[in-house]
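Continuing the series of single-chain predictions for the mutant panel. This is the parent chain; the variants come on the following pages.
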Amino acid sequence: MMGGRTLAGLALTLLLAVCAQAHKRSWTLNFPKSPVSLVGESNGYFTVTNRSSHRITLFTLACVASNRKRAVTLYGFAPRREALDPGWSVSSGVFDAPYTDEYAECVVRRKATLAVVHVEFSDGTSWSAPVTSDSAAAGGPRK
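Parent structure:
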């Protein structure tokens, strides 16, 4: 028979594990027709994968607040020049900080999600997420 303290500790451990999994899945946002997939991991590590059939030359991340009706960009990061062939990925992580800059800015500071909001392809075409800009929010570099 387990003691009350041991049972309470087990319950707390299970609750924290469930919350951590929910948090892990919820801090990134993928738009339905996005040519990329953004997957978040612990400590703000994330991976961007090219799901399109075209080579990507640049993508832009942003902090986004969304509900069922619309998505709003709260903070835009500087565009990243990355050559990503179809199916290729690029990852981001940290070595000397508790979180990536993107995670700290979006999730910790702004209580928002991280999303890819713009992609440019080697053939000169581009894709942009269906977001509006929040001019009242303190912003960063915009595209």
